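Hey team,

Filing this mostly as a record. A colleague (T.K.) asked me to run one chain through the structure pipeline before their review meeting, and I want the input and output archived in the tracker in case anyone asks later how it was produced. No errors, nothing strange. Just documentation.

Input sequence:
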Amino acid sequence: MDKLFGTDGIRGLANEYPMTSEMAMKVGRAVAYFFNRKEKGSPKIIIGKDTRISGYMLEYALVSGICSMGADAYLAGVLPTPGIAYITASTDADAGIVISASHNPFYDNGIKIFKRDGFKLSDEKEAEIEKILLSDEISSISRNTRMTGGVYRIDDAGQNYIDFLLSKVPENFCQGLKIIIDCSNGATYKVAPELFVRLGAEVETLFNNPDGKNINENCGSENTSELKKIVLERRADIGLAFDGDGDRLIAVDEEGNIITGDQILAICAKSMKKKDQLKSNTVVSTVMSNMGLGIALEDMGIKHIKAKVGDRYVLESMIHSGAVLGGEDSGHMIFLDHQTTGDGILTALKLIEALKNDSKPLSEHIKIMNVFPQVLINVEVKNKPDISSVPQITEAIKAVEKNLEEKGRVLVRYSGTQPLCRVMIEGPTRKITEKYCQEIADKIKEQIG
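Output structure:
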């Protein structure tokens, strides 16, 4: 049987294995069993979700499993993933569960699990839970049929999360700024507009009318075309695009330039170093980061560590190195002095803080980093053999690497959440980069597509 947990929890097509109500109930039971603290009575488990229509189905199934083990389920409703992490850590809960497939289309869904301290599970802890699920061990665990758990709603979860974010910046922090927000018809659709209005900004909100099926649809951090258009039309200072579960941010400057996660990292690193807030003088990114980020950090005298792809691996490297700033080019940023996981809204506040400190528009700040032309092609695959075991693919990769020499790089990896092989190439020009990327992608499609 295939492994359940990928790079960000369990994910797949809603109503198909493993994202079925039956599996969600098993996950609920396994989580309740795994995090049970007998000396403190019934385990307390927080559940939050994004706006996908399948979220209700999976939520009720999780609740059923949790309660069947004598644990209590606390429903936070629609809330960004980092909001659930915060609520879990601040309410002495035993665990937090988020029902979301992040930036994926509405027909996908997923389950992410947080520990009581607000951090995601390690690979080892996920493997333990997965063993319980796949071995059907949970079915043999004795239950007290007279002591099922209860279900409670956390009506002020959104306000508590907003108050947490407000505590990170001064009052009227965004006074005088015109901000356009793209909520991706997702989990930020209520909290993000309210937060920035309360901070004194002039706010216009896009894609904040979720219907269960329009999450991430031609909007959000994966598609900023409409945001760019409105920023230019309204002559706004900045545009902020979140993804479906609110843990990512991609920005648009006042000139309509798209600001990637790597650029945000560089801008925030400079700002934090200037204020002596960049502990260990280190920034952690991933192997997918643009070459320009490494050069920019080197020019600033900042140590740069590259982790495996996945926010958990970024976090592990941050903790190991003592870094407080890390992230991915996708816009998933971790500010470890403030939050336990990626937080798109917090990232927006930190980016705005950098702008305010230097009193320069965002278009000036992005000059800190030269972005190398980068092309990414996702190839659908039928299976995921070790890349090195397919000679036709490895030969194509070696040929491109030889041609690029020191003027670029090649990275080929499988998606941890979808049946895709990602081909990423950076090169000296867009034309050359696209050509080489397509050559490798075609070879992958031919062999395993």
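Quick notes for T.K.: The domain at 374-448 is CATH 3.30.310.50 (TATA-Binding Protein). The longest helix spans residues 430-448.
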